[in-house]
Amino acid sequence: SRPVRLSVQLYPYGDGRRLLLARDVTAQEQAEAMRRDFVANVSHEIRTPLTVLAGFVETLQTLQLPEEERSRYLALMAQQASRMQHLVEDLLALSRLEGSPLPGLTQWTSVALLLRQCEDEARGLSVALTRQQGRPHLIEFPQAQDLGEIAGASMELQSAFSNLLANALRYTPAGKQVSVGWQQHADGSATFSVQDTGPGIEPTHLARLTERFYRVDRSRSRDTGGTGLGLAIVKHVLQRHGATLEVRSTVGSGSVFSVTFPAVRLRRSPASGDVNAP
Ligand code: ADP
């Protein structure tokens, strides 16, 4: 049993009797503590790259550095600026998700199209991530046949799938495999999955992965350009689409992130050549 926080007030009637009013403020205090944590986290996440940037600016202003070193400093500054940009984009994405109405069942997104966009993005990201370390990842995608459609906001679904795929690539060493899957089940539901051959995640962390700014390994997440908000965004988008996220992981051999959409959110693609198809 968890402790309950009560706010107690005593009102004298004036005739010796008193009224005792007790309110349960547990939830309110928890929400307030979460908000404080969030603001502290955001401030910290922004302060770190800003401090680094300010330091580099000062160095460049005060020291006459050789051209090569100057360029290296400028590249590091660009990296910090881009980190802040990503963080602000992710914060905005989260707040937009919280403020917007649930996507209805009237807008349909082609799974083949979603996967094609994911594939283009993944190949580009893999090249960027592995530039200094050698071969890009081996990336596998399902053949785009009739994969059906999902009801929901295509931009949101795209961002959820992309975030999972970006994590798989960022946490998997160069040259190793990342596989994307789309399985339709007998009960009409379907599962999107991203399997990586990265370090895997200890079971104790699994339940907390989708919390804002929760990271298993802080320095590693930063090195790979992580904001700590990716899975929080994924969780939000999936909740809004009635989908569920499952993570299976084996330390030392890799992880599988699977997203299952209920049958009510899925339909077969309209036949090719359908004049009403968008
Ligand atoms: P980040 O931007 O730090 O990657 P996320 O919310 O996307 O933030 O992920 C939270 C944490 O979960 C990461 O910091 C990392 O420790 C862990 N994680 C996510 N995806 C993977 C993965 N595919 N393999 C290993 N660890 C992962």
From TrEMBL:
It is an enzyme of class 2 (transferase). GO terms for molecular function: kinase activity. It is found in: Cell membrane. Residues 41-265 form the Histidine kinase domain. Its main location: membrane. Its EC number is 2.7.13.3. Keywords: ATP-binding, Cell membrane, Kinase, Membrane, Nucleotide-binding, Phosphate transport, Phosphoprotein, Transferase, Transmembrane, Transmembrane helix, Transport, Two-component regulatory system. It comes from the Bacteria. This is Phosphate regulon sensor protein PhoR. It comes from Acidovorax bellezanensis.
